[in-house]
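Bumping my old thread because nobody answered last time. Still need a sequence for this structure:
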């Protein structure tokens, strides 16, 4: 199959791909997604196939607005609408209770069509989206092309990140082509992602609400609306064998380039000194560092990439996955990476780096 690159002039075609039950590479402000009609179980099944994604890792549903929540969710707390008011459209996913199916819907799922299109009416989320959980992740993305496609297709789009499972997420259409070229009919090119790391996931089915994955909406921003927010242990440490994280996806190796990563945390200057003193200065050691230390570290033979200035965590988030992917195009055997502190979007950058490193972290 040849994968076609679509652009802003092909939005109708993009929506038709979704409506037709096919897969579409779709830009969002966080990362590129691998999208399908979230109400079509066969289309959603194809996402898992194309990515090589474990079946027990549920998908996020992307909707047009908070008005769509009640179609698919129940017992929606007031806080969901407060968060939507503040942060939607935007990089925030809320885990909510999935709406129980009516007896007619259950019957239809058994015997009838695998998806029933009744425009604007309540419809059924197939189990393959939620991995059989009684909760569902809901997000309203901000990227204008993505919003057009949702609007034109009039269906929630189920989309995980558009990478092959385990690889760093794609933040450009080109990244997505690397992973999904030949496997899906089309990728809609919406330019580089402006956030660069996946959405924040907050579980609103428990008290206090629980941060399952840090992202573009920061913990501090959530606390300002919700008050107390619990942070799931999977955000900051490796899950022990047999331990079940609340976001099933957190137990899998993630975001990882081919070479092992060593994360260096703490004072940036001391971190840069540590890397200089411990790297091999051969082509086998790559470095991802803050811009300020680039001249000092870029003197060896291996590739050195800048994440952006120490103080600009937004830029670090935007560049992170591209840097990890770029390392895969070299023959490095080890990657040293400087890591920001946990404030603001730094928590998300640190979380992705730590996971890429399998939590191999050096504190300086
Ligand atoms: P991805 O889109 O590949 O970044 O993955 C989506 C993330 O959302 C994974 O970590 C999932 O485990 C998580 N997720 C999706 N739905 C739920 C849910 N109902 N409860 C908890 N986590 C969820
Ligand atoms: Mg992913």
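Sorry it took so long. Here it is:
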């Amino acid at each position: 199959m040849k994968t076609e690159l679509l652009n802003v002039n092909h939005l109708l075609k993009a929506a038709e791909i979704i409506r037709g039950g096919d897969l579409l590479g779709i830009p969002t402000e966080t990362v590129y997604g691998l999208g399908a009609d979230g109400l079509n179980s066969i289309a959603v099944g194809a996402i898992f196939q194309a990515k090589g994604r474990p079946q027990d890792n549920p998908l996020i549903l992307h909707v047009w607005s908070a008005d769509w929540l009640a179609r698919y969710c129940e017992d929606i707390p007031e806080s969901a609408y407060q968060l939507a008011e503040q942060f939607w459209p935007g990089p925030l996913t809320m885990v909510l209770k999935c709406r129980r199916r009516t007896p007619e819907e259950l019957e239809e799922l058994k015997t009838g069509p695998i998806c029933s299109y009744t425009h604007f009416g309540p419809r059924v989320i197939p189990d393959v989206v939620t991995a059989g959980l009684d909760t569902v992740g809901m997000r309203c993305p901000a990227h204008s092309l993505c919003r057009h496609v949702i609007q034109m297709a009039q269906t929630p789009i189920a989309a995980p990140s558009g990478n092959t499972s385990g690889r760093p997420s794609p933040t450009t259409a080109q990244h997505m082509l690397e992973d999904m070229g030949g496997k899906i009919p089309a990728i809609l090119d919406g330019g580089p992602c402006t956030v660069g790391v996946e959405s924040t996931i907050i579980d609103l089915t428990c008290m206090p609400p629980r941060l399952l994955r840090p992202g573009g909406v920061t913990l501090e921003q959530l606390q300002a609306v919700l008050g107390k927010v619990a942070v799931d242990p999977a955000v900051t440490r490796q899950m022990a064998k047999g331990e079940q994280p609340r976001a099933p996806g957190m137990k899998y190796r993630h975001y990882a380039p081919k070479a092992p990563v060593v994360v260096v945390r703490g004072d940036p200057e001391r971190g840069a000194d540590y890397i200089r003193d411990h790297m091999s200065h051969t082509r086998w050691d790559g470095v991802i560092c803050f811009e300020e230390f680039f001249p000092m570290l870029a003197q060896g033979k291996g590739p050195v990439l800048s994440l952006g200035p120490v103080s600009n965590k937004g830029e670090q988030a935007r560049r992170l996955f591209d840097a990890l992917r770029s390392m895969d195009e070299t023959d490095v055997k080890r990657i040293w990476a400087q890591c920001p502190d946990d404030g603001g979007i730094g928590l998300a950058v640190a979380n992705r780096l730590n996971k890429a490193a399998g939590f191999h972290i050096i504190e300086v």
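The chain has a mean pLDDT of 93. Let me know if any region looks off to you.
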